Amino acid sequence: MERSLILFKPDAVQRRLCGRLLSRIEDKGLSLVGLKLMRITPELSRQHYAEHVSKPFYPHLEKFITAGPVVALVVEGPGAVAVMRTLMGPTNGRDAAPGTIRGDFGHSRQMNLIHGSDSVESAAREIAIYFQESELVSYDLTLATWLAAPDET
Question: I need a labelling partner for 3 at 20 to 30 A (CA). Which of 41, 78, 79, 84 fits?
Fold first, then answer.
């Protein structure tokens, strides 16, 4: 099973979209294995976005991600990273197709509602930043046999 870190960013929390976004993830068939409401500090932001800290846009990114609470979650399922990237849509909501989270709810590049890990390696690194292993709960999904054939998991 693959895992991905997902953040509902401050704009999603402020716009009261968390329940709708979570429903879309669950409707897609991914399992929720970790969930918390939290505030990202500047230090945590620098750790999460380490590859962007020296870039000119980083101060705006840090100001945005630390501006309000976020919902951090870990989802699990076959191809979870790619599934979530498709479900989210392109970074800029103006470029995102209807039916994607950003296409249906977003209209901005920076205020793009949701973060999802971009690779399995990034997911492992990001999950470790936000969650201790004891905070993650894997479980057998009783309807799993109805979501994908055995050779697809």
Answer: 41
